[in-house]
Amino acid sequence: MNILYVCPFSHALNISPALHLAQLLANDGHHVHFYSVKTPYVVFKDHSLISKVARTPENVNMHFIENTYPVSNIAYPLINVFQEFRDLQRIIKEYDIDILHFYFPEHLFSLPILKKESLGNLPIVLTVCGLPGYGWSYNDKIVDLMGKTYVKMFSRRIIEKANLVVPLSSQVREEMVRLGVDEDKLVDNLNPYGIDTSHFKPCENKRDLREKFHLPLDAFIVTYAGRLVKLKQVDVFIKLLGDLQKVIPELVFLCIGDGPEKEELVKLSRSFNYNNIIFREFVPQDTLAQMLSACDIFLLLSKGEGNPHILLEAGSAGLPIIATNVGGCGDIVRPFLNGFLLESISYETLEECIVTIRDNYNEYSAAARQHMLDNFEWNQIKRKYLNLYTQLLGE
Predict the structure, then answer these.
(1) CATH number for the 206-375 domain, one of 3.40.720.10, 3.40.50.720, 3.40.50.1000, 3.40.50.2000?
(2) Span 170-189, pLDDT tens digits
(3) In Å, what is the CA distance from 280 to each residue of 9, 225, 227, 357, 393?
(4) Number of continuous H segments (helices) and E segments (strands) in the chain
């Protein structure tokens, strides 16, 4: 099978879940092509990271287009859509592509679907992360208004043109149904992303890893890893940390990542004179897997999400999860099994969740790991995608 993936995100410090799926299918002998931007966002923000960028899979044929980022604090790549259209026509013809898989209609990358006939009328699978201005918010009124306008003018038409649509979460599915999307083309019972459970896994000795990464040996470590932007509400947890530590003296917060809010978050922690917050930069996937397994709980208090892959990584590493009930978090976190979902953030709810997990840690940790093995293991998901493609080609 000759498959072409079209996605704005391929790799940065780590490869994207979309590219990982492409690699798995290439491992099975399929001829896989991947079309994406030339400059990852992290490199655009900090060219010193170029040497740390992950290598793309050798068995996936990579194709890139020049890009920039019009809003420096938002990872939205701007491309020449006409050039993209010509590139896709050339790749389809030259490599005899059988099926197209596009990602994220809220990006310009999916616009060529509107000219489906000029792409050879090939069957198209479309993965939808979210609908800006509806269930998804960038926490910026102007950006959200632009997103909502784009959804009305373009995203809806793009979704209508696709043969099958994979929503990244049940919430996104509900939003599309409310917008009038034909339910028959929505794919159910397919978790869009998986996790390499052999790579992200619990460690045998946390103390050894904590020594390696210079983390306090006997602490109860809550961690966050990702972009440091207002949407993630990391500052909310920092403001509550002092009171939480009075009840949980061993509590430490490890914040892994970077972004426009980092400087303010560091200043905020210093203003409280905290000695139980540790900031670390973005790290490669191998290091992240070890750092996660050295911690105890993963925290995500975001105002909006798509399908946060970091929750799969944390859960696979055996970390119970505390997350706000937004985006795909509700499809990953099972309350009182592998963590808790918050409808609102308060000191009382966070204290109750952290103490409950701490006092029943072995049960929650084992359940977090098992939930990933049962529902998000990549090989299971790969087979479902392959069945999906085969079904479309058969039709």
Answers:
(1) 3.40.50.2000
(2) 888 998 998 889 999 999 88
(3) 23, 9, 12, 24, 47
(4) 15, 12
User: How far apart are the two ends of the chain, measured CA to CA in Å?
Assistant: 15
253: left (phi over 0), alpha (psi -120 to 50) or beta: beta
Contact 206/200 with Cβ under 8 angstroms? no
Q: Is the pLDDT of residue 139 over 80?
A: no
With 0-12 / 13-18 / 19 or more C-beta atoms within 10 angstroms meaning exposed / middle / buried, residue 54 is: middle
The pair of structure tokens assigned to 390 is 């085969």
H-state helical runs in 72-187: 81-94, 141-150, 156-161, 170-178
Instruction: Residue 337: name the closest of 352, 317, 307, 315 by CA.
Output: 315
What stretch of H or E contains 315? helix 309-316
The full DSSP string for 284-295 is -HHHHHHHHHTS
CA-based R_g, the chain, Å: 21
Return the percent helix, strand and coil in the chain, to nearest 5: 45, 20, 35
Taking only the tens place, the pLDDT of each residue in 63-80 is 999 999 998 877 889 999
Domains 2-194+377-394 and 206-375 share a fold: yes
- Full-model pTM: 0.87
Q: Report the pLDDT averaged over residues 380-387.
A: 94
Give the C-alpha separation, 51 to 42, whole Å. 12
- 334 has a pLDDT exceeding 90: yes
Element (H, E) at 384: helix 378-394
pLDDT (0 to 100) of residue 259: 84
